[in-house]
Amino acid sequence: MAEGNDEPRTRRGRARGQARVDRLDSPKGAKRRIRIGIDNELIGQVSESIARFMGTGRFLLIQTVIVVSWILYNVVAVGSAKFDVYPFILLNLAFSTQAAYAAPLILLAQNRQEARDRVALEEDRSRAVASKADTEFLARELAALRLAIGELATRDFVRSELARLAVPETDGDRDRERKPSKDSKKTKG
């Protein structure tokens, strides 16, 4: 504080009644704003339902009936009963108001649909990646099974071996297999 200056100060260090001076070396404080609690989801649902209704033949039929009735009444009505005379300025204003509200509602509905489509696309991509991984795993397993089956004995091989073992052998054949002959010992040695 400067000497001789006995003015009461605020918490921010400036004298009461003195205007706040923006400084470049410190960030601006947040401005207090009145916030209205808006439920974006509710507004989105309402806008989608309105946009969905405006895109139907029923809406077009209702609007056509109203416009034709409006014009007929204002053409046929007598004197002061006419509320919108020939150039139909009020009808034009109604159409302008409808267009002013319809366009943003339709855009909001399209944005929400785009967000849903984006989420669905991401889910489809993740499912496709998982499906591809499963397919690759199953292909590897199938290849391993084919290799394992290739190493197994075939039916014809097993039958021929069983047939060979089933042929009765004579005693001489068995002895010959067990004891090597003298001729074979001489050739080896």
Order of helices and strands: HHHHHH
Helix amount? 55-70%
Structural class: mainly alpha
Number of helices: 6
- CA(first)-CA(last) distance: 120 Å
Low-confidence stretches: none
Radius of gyration: 47 Å
Largest sheet: none
Give the mean pLDDT. 83
Number of strands: 0
Instruction: Determine the strand fraction and express it as a percent band.
Output: under 5%
Query: What would the principal axes of the Cα set say about the shape?
Result: elongated
Structure description:
- The chain crosses the membrane at residues 59-79, 85-108.
- This is Putative membrane protein.
- Residues 1-10, 19-28, 171-189 have a biased composition (Basic and acidic residues).
- The N and C termini lie far apart (120 Å).
- The protein has a domain at 40-128.
- The radius of gyration is 47 Å and the shape is elongated.
- The protein has helices at residues 40-54, 57-76, 89-151, 155-166, 171-178, 182-188.
- 66% of the residues lie in helices and 0% in strands.
- The protein has 189 residues and is mostly helical.
- The model has no long low-confidence stretch (mean pLDDT 83).
What's the structural blueprint in terms of helices and strands?
Layout: H1 40-54, H2 57-76, H3 89-151, H4 155-166, H5 171-178, H6 182-188
Essential attributes:
Putative membrane protein; 6 helices; single chain; membrane; 189 residues; transmembrane
State the gist of this model.
By secondary structure, the chain is mainly alpha-helical.
